[in-house]
Amino acid sequence: MHTALRYDAVARLLHWLVVALVGAQFVLGWTMPDVHRDTQPVGLIAAHLIVGTALLAAMALRILWRATHRPPAGELSGPLRVLSSLTHGALYALLVAVPVLGCINASSRAWPLTLLGVVPLPALSPAGSSFGHAMGDIHGVLAWALLALIGLHVAAALLHRFVFRDRTLQRMALW
Ligand code: HEM
Ligand code: HEM
């Protein structure tokens, strides 16, 4: 396929890196121990924090890249084009909001955050803050909204591939 019909290599790499990190976050979020007042951020919880901050960094890069590089011209028209833009916009919004809310919650528990275990990150809320505590609940709820949108997005990708039989899926193919 002509390369100009695909997203550029960096956009494709970041798309699939974020997919992998988000997948890991759902598995970790659902399998890590319940978080209570005195829970320490070790084991699977520590992994959820490390992968989560890496995801946030990948999203920052991705948004910068997207803002400075045009995607390939699309073949969609009319309502499908609008639906696709809305879904992509909402995916971007939730891919930032869910991790940020998680970080706010972690800070309210006085859990230190680092980028890849090396670079210390600033706390996003004061320790003990009830606002930060509430954001933990919203983190869990919005994670479900993100999952629903991912379901819609993946269903659309499969529809393009197997029903419309167009080239949409190849636009994001890793190689
Ligand atoms: C897209 C990325 C993320 C997803 C999909 C995700 C998903 C989840 C899920 C499913 C839970 C369990 C919720 C529940 O059982 O009610 C959870 C809990 C939690 N997550 Fe995340 N998470 C993400 C990013 C992050 C980040 C970046 C941080 C912080 C650095 C974080 C910190 C937490 C904390 C502290 C909890 C426990 C909240 C509580 O029970 O009060 N998460 N996450
Ligand atoms: C099997 C899983 C997936 C497939 C096959 C897939 C496929 C695609 C394709 C083909 C596009 C380009 C659509 C176009 O421009 O016409 C795309 C874009 C996008 N995907 Fe996925 N995707 C998958 C999973 C995910 C997941 C899990 C997320 C979120 C975590 C996600 C987030 C996005 C976003 C935000 C865009 C918009 C890119 C942009 O234009 O900036 N995708 N995906």
From TrEMBL:
Pfam families: Ni_hydr_CYTB
Cofactor: heme b
Topology in the lipid bilayer: Multi-pass membrane protein
GO-annotated biological processes: respiratory electron transport chain
SUPFAM superfamilies linked: Transmembrane di-heme cytochromes
Keyword Metal-binding part of the UniProt annotation: yes
Residues spanning the membrane: 13-30, 42-65, 85-106, 141-164
Cellular component per GO, a single term: plasma membrane
Domain Cytochrome b561 bacterial/Ni-hydrogenase: 6-172
Keywords carried by this UniProt record: Cell membrane, Electron transport, Heme, Iron, Membrane, Metal-binding, Transmembrane, Transmembrane helix, Transport
Family: Belongs to the cytochrome b561 family.
UniProt protein name: Cytochrome b
Natural source organism: Paraburkholderia silviterrae
